[in-house]
Amino acid sequence: MLDASIPLKLQEIVQRELDCDERVVWSEMPKPKYFSGPALGMFLFAIPWTAFSVFWMAGAAGFKIPQFNNGEDLFPLFGIPFFLIGIGMLSSPLWAYRNSLRTVYLITDRRAITIDGGMSYTIRSYTPEKLNDTFRREHKDGTGDVIIFRNSWRDSDGDKQMQELGFLRIDDAKSIELMLKQLAEPANARERRS
Description:
This is DUF304 domain-containing protein. This protein is α+β, with helices and mostly antiparallel strands. The chain folds into 2 domains: about 10-30 and about 100-194, Bacterial Pleckstrin homology domain (PH-domain like, Roll), CATH 2.30.29.50; about 40-95. The protein has 5 helices and 7 strands. Strand 2 (about 105-110) and strand 3 (about 110-115) form a beta hairpin.
């Protein structure tokens, strides 16, 4: 039961991922948003970053258009990489939106699958044994996230970082969480018996 609104390219990737007799029970794409949490934070940080880089380049040029006829006029060009980084951060909401249009979530009769798009595709498969700690974060309208796996680590500064994986920005998060728990139930029963 693959959702008809899923683009053909994603449908082909899904078909390649499925085993020959595996059946799709549920499929959905995330609701595209320009300003998801991480993209919004980066966008807000990018505003002063980019503004300062433009101001710095203008100041380095003496607030006039450089003539580039002597070596001093080349100094403002050192600000270009910082300006380009700022433009990249300002466009992060567009990239987040674009990536959500290349992402699909699946529940089959055997496992849960996420296919995350971008420049390449990342495919994560969660067998029933991996669905034990599933939980949801839900909004008042029923949309939300169903978190399947949490990955935490310490960065080079020793600060704790967290990545949550699962079905993000979906409709009816509660029923999807229930479907995942039902898929995990036979594995939980086997674990209790042993």
